[in-house]
Design goal:
The chain is built from 21 helices and 12 strands. The protein is mainly α. The chain has 4 domains: about 60 residues, no CATH class; about 150 residues, no CATH class; about 55 residues; about 180 residues, no CATH class. A two-stranded antiparallel sheet has the order 1-8. The chain has a two-stranded antiparallel sheet with strand order 2-3. Helix 4 packs across helix 5. It is elongated, with a radius of gyration of 26 Å.
Length: about 525
């Protein structure tokens, strides 16, 4: 859920805020070695808990249409409905789905426009249908297309009887227009509004059938509907080893890498980051390259995301950061000692702390606490606090202007957020490296901070802390659970969440974790509704 950032409190005696709540809590006794939780609970068939029909997000709708029909969305894309509000960082939250008359009209507008584009691309039709229509009344070719492509659309077998029924309704339009593709346009428009296309429907019963498992697997790994190979394997997917074989194939596809990139952009908040135009494409590609490298390498530690020693830059981006120039137009470069920070040093993530033409240690620390640690501040902003006005005098050092962590009434929140944020002050609002404050060169930046009771100096040290933090691992796997279930987790999911974090600690690999989820009994069963 979106949290309001903590206040920047003017002098006075503000009301005492409730202590912050960090979720999930660290249950290890202080001073004892961390013992990874057991992954056993995730091997229970009902480990996913409550499940429901997830509607395709706007992004999934457009990607699914293009993937199935091979026609760019083009003019139809702006007509696609926008997503409902979500209680998670991700677009699919079935509990929050709104269904309105306007939504129905939007789906109809999108379907109508996109179906026209499919109708116009006749070469594409022939490739997907496996036949060339002999005339406006070629029912056999229509039925072949309806069964072959319809299986991709509805993510199940389309019977000849069903396809013939569609032909009976739509072929008269083709004959009347003397144009076979009038029927194709009508069929595609109907498909794109079909409940089985728009929703990931799972029928009653505890065990899922092969097509339902294929759908779960494919959207989880690639963000797309199942391809033909996965649908062909559907009858075998009740077997864990068959699921593993198909998952390994899917994980090697560009779609799986793109899905991993999207997951991290939503989780860490840089999907909507406002970057300077000159940096935007290069910076987004930089983060995508790091996520892609980690996702593709089965031996890589997933949380190396926070302390990777190399980054992918263009010459312009390297100059912006003050890093060595890459060979050629772009490439991997190694951070100088003291600079390595993984995504913490990327403009995409650094931008989350941008405020007042500079950086706000409070905002930056708050965003990282909220996203990487799943922290939540239970208090409210005290009355009279203006978070839109820069604190203190511009000529003062930030340690003076951002004084709230030293005020007892404010410290419960600011001691957490600001201590993280001040440790990242060497990074400017777009990740540029600096050793003094831009508004006052006399104010040296020492990079000293603290998170979870651990002191650190600079983004490199913070990255090491985050990479090895049980709280970060629990938070990261919690986000994966949200994507898999399409809902916000609750206290009823505590055992499954702990077990999923335990599964991460067994290999620390993104790829291995996804394979473990796919091969678990939970992937083939509904949770308790």
């Amino acid at each position: 859920m979106t949290q309001q950032p903590p206040a920047q409190q003017p002098p006075g005696q503000p009301p005492v805020m409730q202590p912050p709540v960090m979720e999930p809590p660290i249950t290890q006794p202080p001073g004892t070695p961390f013992v990874p939780p057991s992954p056993a609970a995730f091997q229970q068939p009902g480990a996913l808990g409550e499940t429901g029909a997830q509607r395709l997000s706007r992004r999934q709708l457009l990607a699914a249409a293009e993937n199935i029909f091979g026609v760019p969305a083009g003019a139809a894309a702006p007509l696609a409905p926008f997503d409902s509000a979500s209680a998670t960082y991700f677009e699919s939250d079935y509990r929050a789905l709104a269904f309105t008359s306007q939504l129905i009209l939007d789906y109809e507008s999108f379907a109508t426009e996109y179906a026209r584009a499919v109708r116009a691309d006749r070469t594409n039709f022939v490739q997907r249908a496996g036949c060339t229509p002999t005339g406006s009344a070629d029912t056999a070719c229509f039925v072949k297309y309806a069964q072959g492509v319809g299986r991709r659309v509805l993510r199940r077998t389309v019977s000849a009887t069903e396809a013939q029924a569609w032909a009976a309704k739509l072929m008269p339009y083709a004959v009347a227009d003397s144009d076979f593709y009038s029927a194709v346009e009508g069929l595609v428009a109907m498909w794109l509004q079909h409940p089985e296309f728009l929703y990931r429907v799972e029928k009653a019963g505890a065990a899922l059938d092969g097509f339902e498992i294929a759908t779960r697997m494919s959207f989880f790994i690639t963000g797309l509907p199942p391809d033909d190979a996965l649908l062909d394997a559907a009858s075998r997917l009740t077997d864990a080893q068959a699921r593993r074989a198909e998952a390994e194939r899917l994980l090697s596809t560009p779609a799986a890498i793109a899905a991993a990139e999207h997951f991290h952009a939503r989780w860490l908040g840089f999907d909507d980051a406002l970057l300077p135009n000159a940096l935007d494409a290069d910076a987004r590609n930089e983060t995508a390259k790091l996520v892609g490298r980690i996702a593709a390498d089965g031996a890589a530690d997933w949380l190396e995301l926070f302390n990777a020693k190399q980054t992918w830059v263009t010459p312009a981006l390297a100059t912006h950061y003050g890093l060595p120039a890459p060979g050629g137009s772009a490439g991997w470069v190694t951070y100088p000692s003291g600079r390595a920070a993984g995504v913490l040093g990327h403009a995409t993530v650094a931008r989350l702390g941008a405020k007042f033409g500079d950086t706000s240690p409070t905002l930056r620390g708050y965003e990282l606490m909220k996203r990487a640690l799943c922290g939540k501040l239970s208090g409210q902003i005290p009355p009279g606090v203006d978070i839109d006005t820069q604190p203190g005098l511009p000529t003062d050092c930030k340690s003076t202007r951002y004084y709230q962590r030293g005020v007892a009434a404010c410290a419960t929140c600011h001691a957490i957020t600001d201590n993280i944020g001040f440790g990242l002050e060497n990074l400017g609002p777009a990740g540029e490296w600096r050793t003094e404050e831009p508004q006052n060169a006399a104010c040296a930046i020492d990079g000293k901070g603290e998170v979870g009771g651990q002191a650190f100096t600079g983004p490199e040290a913070l990255g090491e802390v985050l990479r090895n933090s049980p709280a970060v691992a629990a938070c990261a796997t919690k986000q994966l659970f949200h994507v898999l279930t399409g809902r916000l987790s609750t206290t009823a999911d505590a055992a499954s969440l702990e077990a999923l974090a335990g599964q991460y600690w067994q290999s620390r690999s993104w790829r291995a974790l996804l394979l473990a989820v796919v091969t678990s009994p939970a992937m083939a069963h509904k949770g308790a509704n």
